[in-house]
Write a structure and sequence with these properties.
By secondary structure, the protein is of the alpha+beta class. It has a domain of 103 residues: L,D-transpeptidase catalytic domain-like. 18% of the residues lie in helices and 38% in strands. It contains four helices and 14 strands. The chain has a twelve-stranded mixed beta sheet, covered by helices on one side. The chain is globular. It starts with a helix and ends with a strand.
Length: 191
């Protein structure tokens, strides 16, 4: 076969391939979009090389992504907002507590530096105006609260940016999805 005919037939076959093809593994169904990204039950699923067990949360502050590890080298990927310069935190923790529409009580350091936070020193009830959004997962090291959270936000524009006081912000609909997947004791790796 002439090399030009071979190339043209290959290009024609490629053009006929649908932009979104289905991929199955076991009982899971993924819709292939591009590269290593898939849609699984409406969520973006990516290939992730990690030695962490399924159910672990991995947060890349540099990439501004949170990954919930699935079996078979896959992970649900969410965009996040992270701590601004000087407020980032890295380490290994676990989810020590979970709350729906949590009360926000700013730490003493935040009350000292931020007059807006000071008026809520005794707490702000949960709700749409609360900075923690719809859900919060409280990060602990052993029995010690780190004062860092994975939580929703009332500022969706902040996702993908480094603007928080160190917490990991998510869109409210995405933090609800993650909250429903996560159990108390879930390992969280922040790098």
């Amino acid at each position: 076969m002439d090399r030009r005919v071979f190339l043209l037939s290959g290009l024609a076959a490629l053009a006929a391939t649908p932009a979104s093809a289905e991929w199955r593994t076991g009982k899971r169904r993924f819709n292939f979009n591009s590269g290593n990204r898939f849609k699984y039950k409406g969520k973006t699923v990516v290939r992730l090389r990690t030695s962490e067990k399924p159910g672990t949360i991995i947060i890349s502050t540099r990439k501004r992504r949170l990954f919930y590890v699935l079996p078979d080298g896959m992970a649900v990927s969410y965009g996040v907002g992270v701590g601004r310069w000087g407020f980032t935190w890295r380490g290994v923790a676990s989810v020590g507590r979970k709350a729906e529409w949590p009360t926000w009580t700013p730490p003493a350091e935040m009350v000292d530096r931020d007059p807006l936070a000071a008026k809520f020193a005794n707490g702000m009830p949960g709700g749409p105006e609360n900075p923690l959004g719809a859900r919060a997962m409280y990060l602990y090291q052993g029995n010690q609260d780190t004062l860092y959270r994975i939580h929703g936000t009332r500022e969706p524009w902040s996702i993908g940016l480094a603007v928080s006081s160190g917490c990991i912000r998510m869109l409210n609909e995405e933090v609800i999805d993650l909250y429903n997947r996560v159990k108390i004791g879930t390992k969280v790796v922040v790098s």
